[in-house]
Amino acid sequence: MKDAAGGWLDPSPVAEKVVSNAGDLNLFERFLANGRVADGIGDIPKFSVWEWLHEKVAEITVNGSIDFISDFALAFPFLAVVGVGVYSLIRMFSKGAAKWGAIATVIYGICVIKGL
User: Fold this and answer.
1) How far does Cα 107 stand from its chain's mean position?
2) How many angstroms separate the CA atoms of 60 and 49, rounded?
3) Which pTM does this prediction carry?
């Protein structure tokens, strides 16, 4: 490589910087280390059916119920306002459909809160 004046550039500082950034592994060893499985770096989490079932059962127990009740208490005013709005808009056309629309809106809101 040549500089603007036509003289040759020394690539040693750039090569030294690359070597210092690479650490103690050369490029091929780093490639192999990145592809290694079960070394704790970048591993895909293991899925266990029993752990998943335990989480689902734990949601139904007291701790899960307390979390759901607190989430429902925070979201209830929004559910009530949206349910009344849906009821009012659909009632312009049908009283029965308005009732079922409001019920469906509240059930959908509870499903969103529950995370289903």
Assistant:
1) 24
2) 17
3) 0.44
55-82 confidence digits (pLDDT tens): 777 766 766 677 777 788 888 888 899 9
CA distance 67 to 75: 12
Cα separation, 3 vs 11, whole angstroms: 12
CA dist 72 and 114 (Å) reads 9
Phi then psi dihedrals of residue 18, to 5 deg: -65, -45
According to DSSP, residue 46 is labeled: P
Tell me how many degrees the CA angle 100-102-105 measures, rounded to the nearest 5.
105
Instruction: Indicate if the pLDDT at residue 33 is higher than 70.
Output: no
Q: What is the gyration radius of the CA atoms in the chain, in angstroms?
A: 31
| Gap between the Cα atoms of 95 and 109, Å rounded | 21
